[in-house]
């Protein structure tokens, strides 16, 4: 059926054509390939996968290119695709103890089983711009040794031997792991759902909240118990086979914060934990997440509620950058019907105000005349 | 009945075109609940094993899935063919607890447990309640009942046959619990009537 | 990479069937409990949150091949977001579309209710940004949920009364709260309060979708929808001093169009279909023929 439309359609189509032009830029410069983005802008790809909550480097790179480098736009593109994908099943929990570790550091022990591995880090680089990177300089192959296979105990397990850190806790047998992309959110949240929300949450927002706790807004005395980055196996149970099969490997960053805790009415003095886990390599996000996770456990641990980072409803309701950007940016849409209503009201209130002022002045004049 | 026969009937009789059949059945169910008492007829888009009727089979195929727990009355739960068909075509888990049920399907309305024994929702979440789908003999030919409430312009008269005993007393109790309470879909071969928890039912026309 | 092939295929009306079932179940609950906000697991849509994702999900879940869809924003069929949403459904559902209110079986709207009285069998789908009418009085969901549970709406009355005390009248002009069937206080979405009376005992089914806030609610046909007010300050709708400059209609909602930088302005129907229909019928406003061209 034909619809007469007066401009909207043409304007939209022209705008999108211009966007495509700007995205491509100078045609004499070669177009970026997806492979280049995956290989050379890997941390951007990782953040898009993490906050887009879909592990697929090529799609994340495509989204990054399509979004002209706008991270939140790229995350949004990936999310909108993710939501259309059928669910075949839920994986078993990944075991980061069995991670093929590329980086692993602990700030709480000088040395520990499995050792400290610096890995590919910006830490200790001097932040001096490197003019050589303007070209395609030959880069030497890195030093490597054969991977140690097997279990590398986490710092939490080491502390647990002394009983000085809270345990993992047991979920009830009938607990189904939450999935906020499939079920409506409800406050207070269970910790699993909250961790999912944090893992998808905006890096900048979580960074700022974590920072606020360090500056005294709900101080939680954190130590970076351990940060590890590497590949883990993803397994799913196949009921027909009766055992789990591996469907692939993913790279993740895990951070366990260890927090001093004086004890409260319920739990005894001990170390408590905050947990962070994100796709790819993103230490900043994993650390922020683990600090915010710990701070959000204030109610559970009987701590005083004094700061924004302890407020679950506030933090979780505002951590999703796709939601936030949509609603902030929706102010661009026409609001002239409501504005007309407000205009009418303000005009009316203004004329009432002016009438009162005039009345008061007249009264004043009369008083003066009478004196 | 042999196991073979059970299986073949379980695999057959689903929607021929799940996307469009589901949409059209949903619109009928939605209209039925938005316009209580108004009879909506729909074609038998499914062929479930007896005693489940096609109308109810179609509603099940439209609304049930692995996120919804289903309670079947004894007549249906004892019937392997029916349970097998529902499981195959909807993947919905069955429950024996009326209080856990998202949907309850009753082939024998006369033996209906009290409405209060189903999930009522909470005052905060009144939506977490059971929807009952009750097979009755016919949508017409019974005693006249007069319906009023949201969705009804002035009043609506229905005369369903084969309602559970003490249904009106049960329904009055259900209504008094608003916003908690159950919603009911009465189903017969010729169509359905929706009774959302808001509707007031009195004897007479 | 076979991504392109995958990305090119979508289910009818975009949403997968499992998502539709989930939304359909929420719609049925919403109809059974008029004015109550049913939580649902809103999906990411290919348009941003805040741009109609709730309305789009509701429409996608009820829409069938026999429907005729109309999409309006600010009352107009030709505003960019209305054009965009209409094009979306044409693409993913190949559905018939119209600008005529009377011809549509489903109307998705942002900020207006059409002037033409809706009929039995029609469905009006509202895009809702903030579904909670108490949200600006109490930001916490945990608290507002309790208030609805206990039917504790005193805070809302206090707020409206404070307006009266301060200004002599209620200073809410849009998203004006209503009470549905004497029980739930409901946000009618940011429609001007001018449109509130149209909701009362409407023949059409009214469905509300809030995607970002993950809520669906409904008003069945012939349901009482009463704007909150006080005996000494009864609810009033906006009144315009002049008729539509193009079609001469009175008692309709008007947009103020600025004509030049010397303060020249005209008032025209916000409902473009209503205005065009009247002009086709021969009604003429005092400035007809001087309408500014829509910007390209």
Automatic annotation (TrEMBL), chain A:
Pfam families: PhnI
One example GO MF annotation: lyase activity
Record keywords: Lyase
Stored InterPro entries: PhnI
Full protein name: Carbon-phosphorus lyase complex subunit PhnI
Organism: Hoeflea poritis
From TrEMBL, chain B:
A molecular function (GO) term: lyase activity
Name assigned to this protein: Phosphonate C-P lyase system protein PhnH
Organism: Hoeflea poritis
Gene: phnH
Pfam families: PhnH (PF05845)
Highest taxon listed in the record's lineage: Bacteria
Keyword Lyase: yes
This protein's UniProt keywords: Lyase
UniProtKB/TrEMBL annotation, chain C:
Pfam families in alphabetical order: PhnJ
Keyword annotations: 4Fe-4S, Iron, Iron-sulfur, Lyase, Metal-binding, S-adenosyl-L-methionine
Family according to the record: Belongs to the PhnJ family.
Chain segments annotated as coiled-coil in the UniProt record: none
Origin: domain of life: Bacteria
Chain's role: Catalyzes the breakage of the C-P bond in alpha-D-ribose 1-methylphosphonate 5-phosphate (PRPn) forming alpha-D-ribose.
EC number: 4.7.1.1
UniProt catalytic activity: alpha-D-ribose 1-methylphosphonate 5-phosphate + AH2 + S-adenosyl-L-methionine = alpha-D-ribose 1,2-cyclic phosphate 5-phosphate + methane + 5'-deoxyadenosine + L-methionine + A + H(+)
InterPro entries: PhnJ
UniProt signal peptide: none
Protein's UniProt name: Alpha-D-ribose 1-methylphosphonate 5-phosphate C-P lyase
């Amino acid at each position: 059926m034909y619809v007469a439309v007066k401009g909207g359609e043409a304007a939209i189509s022209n705008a999108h054509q211009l966007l495509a032009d700007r995205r491509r830029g100078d045609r004499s410069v070669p177009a970026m390939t997806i492979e280049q983005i995956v290989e050379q802008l890997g941390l951007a790809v990782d953040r898009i996968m993490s906050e887009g909550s879909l592990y697929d480097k090529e799609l994340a790179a495509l989204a990054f290119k399509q979004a002209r480098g706008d991270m939140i736009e790229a995350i949004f593109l990936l999310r909108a695709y993710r939501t259309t994908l059928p669910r075949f099943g839920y994986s078993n929990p990944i075991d980061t103890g069995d991670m093929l570790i590329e980086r692993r550091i602990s700030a709480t022990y000088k040395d520990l089983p499995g050792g400290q591995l610096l890995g590919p880090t910006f830490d200790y680089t001097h932040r001096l711009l490197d003019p050589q990177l303007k070209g395609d300089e030959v880069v030497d192959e890195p030093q490597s040794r054969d991977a140690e296979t097997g279990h590398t105990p986490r710092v939490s397990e080491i502390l647990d031997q002394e009983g000085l850190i809270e345990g993992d806790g047991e979920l009830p047998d009938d607990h189904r792991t939450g999935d906020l992309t499939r079920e409506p959110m409800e406050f207070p949240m269970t910790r699993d759902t909250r961790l999912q929300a944090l893992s998808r949450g905006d890096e900048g927002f979580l960074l700022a909240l974590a920072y606020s706790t360090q500056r005294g807004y709900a101080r939680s005395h954190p130590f970076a118990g351990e940060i590890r980055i590497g590949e883990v196996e993803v397994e799913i149970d196949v009921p027909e086979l009766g055992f789990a099969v591996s469907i692939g490997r993913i790279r993740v960053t895990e951070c366990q914060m260890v927090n001093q805790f004086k004890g409260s009415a319920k739990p005894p003095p001990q170390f408590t934990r905050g947990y962070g886990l994100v796709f790819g390599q993103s230490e900043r996000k994993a650390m922020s997440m683990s600090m915010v996770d710990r701070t959000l456990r204030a109610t559970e641990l009987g701590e005083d509620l004094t700061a924004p980072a302890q407020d679950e409803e506030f933090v979780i309701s505002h951590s999703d950058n796709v939601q936030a950007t949509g609603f902030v940016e929706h102010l661009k849409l026409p609001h002239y019907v409501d504005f007309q209503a407000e205009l009418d009201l303000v005009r009316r209130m203004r004329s009432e105000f002016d009438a009162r002022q005039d009345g008061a002045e007249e009264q004043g004049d009369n008083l003066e005349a009478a004196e | 009945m042999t196991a073979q026969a059970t299986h073949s009937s379980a695999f057959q009789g689903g929607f021929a075109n799940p996307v469009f059949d589901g949409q059209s059945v949903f619109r009928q169910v939605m209209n039925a609940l938005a316009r209580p008492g108004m009879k909506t007829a729909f074609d038998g888009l499914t062929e479930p094993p007896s005693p489940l009727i096609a109308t109810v089979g179609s509603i099940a195929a439209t609304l049930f899935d692995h996120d919804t727990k289903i309670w079947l009355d004894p007549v249906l739960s004892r019937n392997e063919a029916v349970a097998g068909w529902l499981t195959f075509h909807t993947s919905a888990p069955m429950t024996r607890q009326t209080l856990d049920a998202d949907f309850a399907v009753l082939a024998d309305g006369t033996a209906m447990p009290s409405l209060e024994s189903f999930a009522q929702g909470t005052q905060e979440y009144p939506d977490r309640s059971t929807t009952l789908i009750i097979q009755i003999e016919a949508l017409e030919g019974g005693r006249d009942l007069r319906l009023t409430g949201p969705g009804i312009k002035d009043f609506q008269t229905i005369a369903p046959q084969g309602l559970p005993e003490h249904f009106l007393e049960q329904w009055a109790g259900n209504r008094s619990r608003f916003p908690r309470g159950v919603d009911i879909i009465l189903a017969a071969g010729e169509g359905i009537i929706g009774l959302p928890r808001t509707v007031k039912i009195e004897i007479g026309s | 990479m076979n991504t392109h092939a995958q990305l090119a295929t979508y289910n009818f009306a975009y949403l997968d069937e499992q998502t539709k079932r989930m939304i359909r179940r929420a719609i049925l609950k919403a109809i059974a409990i008029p004015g109550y906000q049913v939580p649902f697991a809103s999906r990411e849509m290919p348009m941003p949150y805040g741009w109609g994702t709730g309305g789009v999900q509701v429409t996608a879940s009820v829409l069938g091949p026999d429907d005729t869809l109309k999409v309006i924003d600010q009352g107009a069929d030709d505003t960019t977001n209305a054009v965009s949403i209409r094009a979306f459904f044409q693409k993913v559902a190949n559905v018939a579309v119209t600008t005529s209110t009377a011809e549509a079986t489903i109307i998705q709207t942002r900020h207006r209710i059409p002037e033409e009285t809706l009929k039995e069998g029609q469905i009006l789908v509202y895009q809702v940004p903030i579904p909670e009418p108490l949200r600006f009085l109490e930001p916490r969901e945990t608290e507002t949920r309790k208030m609805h549970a206990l039917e504790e709406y005193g805070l809302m009355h206090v707020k409206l009364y404070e307006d009266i005390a301060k200004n002599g009248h209620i200073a809410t002009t849009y998203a004006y709260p209503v009470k549905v069937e004497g029980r739930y206080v409901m946000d009618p979405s940011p429609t001007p309060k001018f449109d509130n009376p149209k909701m009362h005992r409407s023949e059409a089914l009214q469905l509300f979708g809030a995607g970002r806030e993950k809520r669906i609610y409904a008003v069945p046909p012939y349901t009482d929808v009463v704007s909150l007010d006080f005996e000494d300050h009864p609810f009033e709708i906006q009144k315009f001093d002049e008729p539509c400059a193009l079609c001469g209609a009175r008692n309709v909602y008007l947009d103020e169009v600025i004509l030049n930088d010397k303060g020249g302005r005209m008032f025209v129907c916000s409902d473009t279909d209503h205005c065009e229909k009247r002009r086709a019928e021969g009604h003429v406003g005092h400035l007809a023929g001087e309408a500014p061209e829509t910007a390209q």
